[in-house]
Design brief:
With 478 residues, this protein is α/β, with parallel strands linked by helices. The protein has two domains: 2-145, Leucine Aminopeptidase, subunit E, domain 1; 159-476, Aminopeptidase, CATH 3.40.630. The protein has helices at 30-33, 72-88, 104-118, 150-171, 179-192, 203-208, 212-218, 271-286, 331-345, 359-364, 376-389, 400-406, 423-432, 466-476; strands at residues 2-6, 17-23, 48-51, 59-65, 93-97, 140-144, 196-201, 226-233, 241-245, 247-251, 291-301, 313-315, 321-323, 349-354, 369-373, 393-395, 413-414, 440-444. Helix 9 (331-345) runs parallel beside helix 13 (423-432).
Length: 478
């Protein structure tokens, strides 16, 4: 989408649709106050009203509610609602007269983000129907705002489009978005940016490196597993940031087979990988001054005569042995190898994203992702990044007593405790064993990767994590 900032008056522009935000108790701008429909305008939050002024023509007024309750999230929601209306009206060009919030850059970011995310749709596999064509997409967005918001608007465009690309990756069926597909996509990201390099290891190379977790999970599938490494050389004097994303492109549960009812959703068990890949692409496009290492272990988890079995013992990349008591607790096994490898490659701060536990959905629903960290400073930075982008996180504790759950009977660790306690924290406590003293934060996004229900994400793939990771990189860049 083309995004522009203009200081023109709303009556001077030529667009298919003009959007205006209105607080409760606020009057419409003078040029719209007498337009047909103005008397029926409602300013309650998310209320939409249509005006029909002579110029620019079709206008939507979106209620913002009480000014005292205004924040960036409300602006994102309002922008998404307008984007959906624009689709119904078949508008290709949209202009926004932003509300006076006193925070011009934050408002501009939220308007651009909400518009781009709210206009998303995934229809790659739908056959064209000449009698019922899909509505046109919004091709241009103009903010009628001060020139000083141009940089914020451009950053928002880059991040929101990257998030939509992550949503595409999530939405692709597992017979398309295989580990090899993700590997090719990583190479495409590297080829598009001189500052990014890619390395993609296959089954034999993974085995040669003795990455026992990734070897074990992938041995039941015919699909070739991949270990994907992207390096971004942005310079700067800040710490090298490591990003790790779980890339299980389809998860049956293995021998510990999942129920069939919602198994089709398990094509999205690579949502962490999608977020990491597209965050790297956005960071490179923005040329942020930071060095970055991204590691994505990608595989299917399938039952077969070659699959790992409950009771098997494996050795992870760092030499720790693990007894497999549940083959559906596979994500922590491949992440363990990836985390240890990221440390070895030189990551000085690590954040991993994974659709890791169903327990997090019970604990936090789809409003917050769970944050668990071994470093208070890094945890605070991740929380701040999530607050700024609306990708909210809630920190859960680590405690030595949780370590008791991870101890194995015949090996160093077990991947699934016999006691059903603190499942999300237990999984993170397991992962902590593979980062050493490196500051590390884990984000369990199983409840927020899809079926969130926000106006700008809907109930399908959300692409969560992309904007948070970019904002974190901006914080750490120096």
């Amino acid at each position: 989408m083309k995004v522009a900032v203009s200081q023109a008056n709303s009556s001077e522009i030529e667009v298919d649709l003009l959007a205006v935000g209105l607080f409760e108790g606020e009057e419409l701008p003078g040029e719209l106050a007498g337009a047909p429909g103005a008397a029926d305008v409602r300013a309650g939050f998310k209320k939409l009203s249509h005006l029909h002024p002579e110029q620019p023509g079709r206008t939507i007024v979106v209620g913002l509610g009480a000014g005292s309750e205004m924040d960036a999230e409300r602006v994102r929601v309002a922008a998404a609602l307008v984007a959906k209306q624009a689709a119904e009206l078949e508008a290709r060009s949209l202009a926004w007269l932003p509300p006076a919030t006193g925070q011009d850059e934050t408002t501009a970011e939220a308007l651009v983000t909400g518009t781009i995310l709210g206009g998303y749709r995934f229809d790659r596999f739908r056959s064209a129907d000449p009698s019922d064509p899909p509505p046109p997409a919004i091709e241009s967005l103009t903010l009628l705002a001060p020139a000083g918001v141009e940089a914020a608007a451009e950053t928002a465009r880059v991040c929101a489009e990257a998030q939509n690309r992550a949503r595409d990756l999530q939405s692709l069926p597992a017979n398309v978005a295989t580990p090899s597909f993700l590997g090719r996509h990583a190479r495409e990201i590297a080829s598009a940016h001189a500052s990014v390099s890619a390395e993609v290891l296959g089954r034999e190379q993974i085995a040669e490196k003795k990455m026992g977790g990734l070897v074990a999970v992938s041995q039941g599938t015919e699909e070739e597993p991949k270990l994907i490494v992207l390096r971004y050389a942005g310079g700067g004097s800040g710490p090298t940031l490591g990003l790790v994303g779980k890339g299980v492109t389809f998860d049956t549960g293995g021998i510990s087979l999942k129920p069939s009812a919602a198994m089709h959703e398990m094509k999205m068990d690579m949502s962490g990988a999608a977020a990491v890949l597209e965050a790297v692409a956005a960071i490179a496009e923005l040329a942020l001054p930071i060095d970055l290492i991204a590691v994505v272990p990608a595989t299917e988890n399938m039952p077969s005569g070659k699959a790992i079995k409950p009771g098997d013992v494996i050795t992870q990349y760092n030499g720790v042995t693990v007894e497999i008591n549940n083959t559906d607790a596979e994500g922590r096994l491949i992440l363990a190898d990836a985390l240890a490898y990221a440390v070895e490659l030189g990551a000085e701060r690590i954040v991993d994203l994974a659709t890791l536990t169903g327990a997090v959905v019970v604990a936090l629903g789809s409003t917050y992702a769970a944050l668990i960290a071994n470093d208070d400073a890094l945890a605070a930075q991740v929380e701040a990044a999530g607050g700024a982008t609306g990708e909210l996180v809630w920190r859960l504790p680590l405690h030595p007593e949780y370590k008791e759950l991870t101890k194995g009977t015949v090996a160093d660790l077990t991947n699934a405790s016999a006691k059903r306690k603190a499942g999300t924290i237990y999984a993170a406590s397991f992962l902590e064993e593979f980062v050493g003293d490196t500051p590390w934060a884990h984000l369990d996004i199983a409840g927020t990767a899809w079926d969130v229900g926000r106006a700008y994400t809907g109930n399908d793939a959300s692409g969560i994590g992309v904007r948070l990771l970019v904002e974190l990189a901006r914080q750490l860049a120096a």
